[in-house]
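Folding follows sequence. Below is one example:
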Amino acid sequence: MSKSRALINGAVWNYGAQISTVILQFGYAAVTTRAVSAQGFGTYGVALTVGAFVSLLANGGLGQAAGRMTELASARTRGLSAYGSMLGIVGAIALFLTADFWAAIWQTPEAAGPVRWMSLMALTGPLFGLVTGMMRRLGSFRQLAILVFVCNIVGMLIGAFAVSIWRTPSSLLISPIIAQSAVVLVGFVLYTRLLVGRWNFAEALHDLSFSWKLTAARLLSYVSGNAGKYGVTVSLGASTLGVWNRTDVLTSVPFNQLQTAMVQAVYPEFRHDISSPKRAYNTWPDLLGLVAWVALPLGALVAVVVPSLVPILFGPGWEGVAALVPVLAMAAAVQMIVIILGSAIEALGRFKLIWATQAALVIIQVAAAGITVATKDWTPVLVTIFLAFGVQHVFHIVFCSRTGYLNVSRLLRHYGSAVAAMLVIAAASAASVWLLHEAPLPWGISIVTTAVLLSTWALWRLREKLPPFRIAREYGVF
């Protein structure tokens, strides 16, 4: 199997498991949304955000450090395992003891209980990152995908039962806690030799240096990514954050799963570009072009079609979700492209650029959050999501162009064709939704079905002229 096929195979297994999880999450969300109020989901969202901050500090970038290793020596991986265990214990204790403080910061006193539950996530978070990063580095994509999928199913089944009984924000955390803990437990059983035994921090110092730098970058990214949610919660209340949280289930979560699958598959390969940009010059634009061709049309489809499905999925009382879906769907689509290039630069170890870019984003997002708090209008926060992604991507493209890592003209051609495809998909989706609402039901369904079939047939006949197909053929995928 060629390297290109191996990467695609890894991404397919990753995404197959994750998108299957997302589909099950829709059912899980349909149950939990009817059991917990918007205010409860807002409280849950606060706990997730606070827990993510502590877990970020505790995780130490161990998964990425393992993923870029040229050789998985047991002395190094055991050192990272011991380090991760200590980080998890410290993070869990700190989060448990400071729960009331974080709830006061977010002006949501009822979040203290769920935040304490999040300490269990902080406990296993570093080891979860290490286990999954190591399995990706070993190329065990299929094994990892099955493991994560099964653990997620078990977590959701137990979690849905718990939510249906207790109907509290804290009960919403049972599912992710069980799923993450199960992955860590099974991972240690499978890779005992690499994770358990005598260890030496000296062997892992190089990897720890990378993880510390990555943690600093992740911290800046966390602030820029959550400043808006903080402003919305403080100015408009936890119930508004609950609407945002439910919208994420339909938009950001599926796109993030696809994004994660792609990044996890290609991240270890970026290590080959650390010493020279020669391979990356045309390969990176092609990779970004493929991502754009997937993300932008899919984002347009979700933005147009999903709002009409919200009442069916979540029931009454969630009208705000339908209005927010188009914005967050397109933001998630753009983020996929931005994160792929950012991950490549991260793997190169160019942290000065990453820190400078994230610092600029923090300024933008904090300013937008301040305006939202002052005006009690969250439009500035939503607008600056796109502004922040645009600034980050432009910074990264300029850097890669100047250092010889990116053929910009090739990249812009790919982006132009992907945007054109996005506009066509948006127009066709809007027409289909209008027909299904306005035309008599049998006629509307017949027309839309016929149009979809004809479009699929035409795309297949013209596939050789489509940029994503040509790129995939060039790299031996087909």
About this structure: The chain has a mean pLDDT of 84.
